[in-house]
Amino acid sequence: MAIKGRRATYEERLSACQALENGVSADDIVKVLKVSRASVFEWQKTYRAHGAEALRTKKTRGPKSRLDDGQMSQLLRLIVGNDPRQLSFGLALWTRGMIQELIFRQFGVRLSVVSVGNVLAKLGLSPQRPLYRAYEQDPEKVAEWKEQTFPQIQARAKKEGAAIFFADEASVRTNYHAGTTWAPIGKTPVVAGSGKTRSISMISAISARGELHFQVHEEGIRQEEFLVFCKALIADASRPVFLIMDNSQVHRAKILKAYATESNGMLTLFFLPPYSPELNPDEWVWKNVKHDNLGRASVRSEDELAQFAQAALAKLKALPEKIRSFFGDAALRYIRDSLA
Q: How far apart are CA 319 and CA 322, in angstroms?
């Protein structure tokens, strides 16, 4: 009896064709994707004759929506303007099932989950990974920082000839992994790495001019190590430094404040609003180093992890344009506006 295949996605059809071209058997593809052999060979024929784009399916016009224009507009406001928990749903992220229930609750219309997906597409909505913010964050303090505090810091730095740096620390474990790799369909690849959990710590500071200063430590960063970093930063900058950081205990240590007071204006400390990491462009350094580099290395020891971190930071330091691009994030627009 012939196998009745399911409807495959474009990505599955493309992967199947590429796998066939690389020597994977049609039987293996049929087994993994649960499609018919006839479909697999038809895809291959189309792929060879017309290329990858020809594997896309033409969208068919769906049935008329059971919600009128007014209901569609109201639904959009309910979804975009509210956290689901505000509407008595138990979770913080919208799902099609929850929106299905919302539609029935608000309009008395019962739609299938597939139909809900079609409605969301018509509203211009798509599933996206959200950015998380601490609920303790004070929006008024964030607004004050963007609109008043930082512009004042910038004006003062210009007057005093000081360099503005944003600083932060991060740690990473030897068993940290990120990214993907290529492998035959249905055969999950295995990458060897250390089973021991060790970690290293890193400090960095960046400026909107594309400057990067960093240190790597194989132990946790204490207030003494951070003070050493600040002294080295001042020496490298060769001018007064305005250092902007979060409110961690290390940053507010008495020895650091005392040094800043006694530095004759060479070091001035400023602190971001609490629970606001998105206001610090140095967070992008850790995304680059940890996710884009260390997470794909699969290190075998603490020493090897430190070497990889040192190399990744050194590579980034040599790319000032890359560092300047970090300031292009939408949450950091306040810095660009103030510098303009």
A: 5
